[in-house]
Amino acid sequence: MAAESVINLSVRALRVQRGARLLASLDAVDVHAGEFVALIGPNGAGKSTVLKGLTGEWPADGHITLLGQPLSGWHRPRLAQHMAVMPQQSHLNFDFTVREVVTLGRLPHRGEPLARTRQAVDAALDTLSLQAFAPRRFTTLSGGERQRVQFARVIAQIWGQTGPRLLLLDEPTSALDLAQQQSVLDHAWVLAREGVTVVAVMHDLNMVSRYASRVLALHQGHLVADTTPADFMHSQRLHEVFGVQVAVERSQIDHLPVVLMGPQGVREVPRSYPAPPLEGKQAVFSPVPRAVNLS
Question: What angle separates helix 143-158 from helix 114-127, to the nearest 10 degrees?
Fold first, then answer.
């Protein structure tokens, strides 16, 4: 069976509630191996809530199948060997080193040879160019550096696994500079190319346009679009979902949609200080097809 035909995540009638308040719902969604799915929508739309419902972190009604088996039927340590979750915020009060934090990703693999644990951790550190950070204390790192370490941790968690793998990322680039945003999304993109199912909460629609193969758009807790980024990125649809006026153009480099924003009448933009022209060559963007060592 082809990898792209394997359904790694199936949802039917998902409902996440707090008391009588419905926070998020998904009626029917199937996500296949090798898909890079972006969960998008305005703040409070229910994106993170959906992830928590899918993983069982928050109680939810409905039927969820992960990696071919109902969520309720999974032995949690076994599931964690194939599914890794990177939360939006990670609080760590212990003074662990970076290597120790990444090693936490191997906890579901208790009992494996120490050499294999080291191999997995080194592969993850190498992937994110973090070997120089390995002896540093996690609590001394910047927010962006911590985010990269947490991404390395989830890579280490599913390293070396055969069969279906699922990676759930909640705003994985929120604290990163441009170079690190590209690095993290490049590696997630490569993992999807290798058959890993990637579901990521994302806000930067231009990054969504270039990395995701599919968009699930949420508005007020409900799924309002399930399509490709190119089909979704239209000014009227973005206005309906996000409530803002934007322009959508096609990039001259890759012909993919580019979302452009500007002041909405809050103040007049000064025109007396035009931006200087760009100097030198303009870089041609393309996700880097660099292999992630998960074997």
Answer: 130
pLDDT band at 1 (very low <50, low <70, confident <90, very high): very low
Least Cα distance to 9 among 77, 82, 76 occurs for: 82
Give Rg (Cα) of the chain: 20
Contact 191/167 with Cβ under 8 angstroms?
yes
Cα(236)–Cα(243) distance, rounded to whole angstroms?
Answer: 10
Give the total residue count for the chain: 295
pTM score, whole prediction: 0.86
Structure tokens at 293: 């060592």
DSSP class per residue in 49-89: HHHHHHHTSS--EEEEEETTEEGGG--HHHHHTTEEEE-S-
Strands (E), the chain: 7-18, 21-32, 36-40, 61-66, 69-70, 83-86, 166-170, 197-201, 214-219, 222-227, 247-250, 257-260
* Structure tokens given for 134: 């390995």
Q: Characterize the bridge pairing of strands 247-250 and 257-260.
A: antiparallel
- Contact (CB, 8 A) for 65 and 55: no
What CA–CA distance (Å, rounded) separates 2 from 243? 40
Please state, in angstroms and as integers, the Cα–Cα distance from residue 51 to each residue in 34, 76, 201, 248, following that order: 18, 16, 9, 29
Distance CA(257)–CA(242), nearest Å, equals 17
Q: How far is residue 58's CA from residue 76's CA, in Å, rounded to a whole number? A: 15
- Sign, Cα dihedral of 92, 191, 260, 275: positive
Average pLDDT on 186-214 reads 95
Distance of CA 154 to the CA centre of its chain: 11
Residue 193 DSSP one-character state = H
- pLDDT digit string, tens, across residues 18-69: 888 889 999 999 999 999 999 999 999 999 999 999 988 888 999 999 988 9
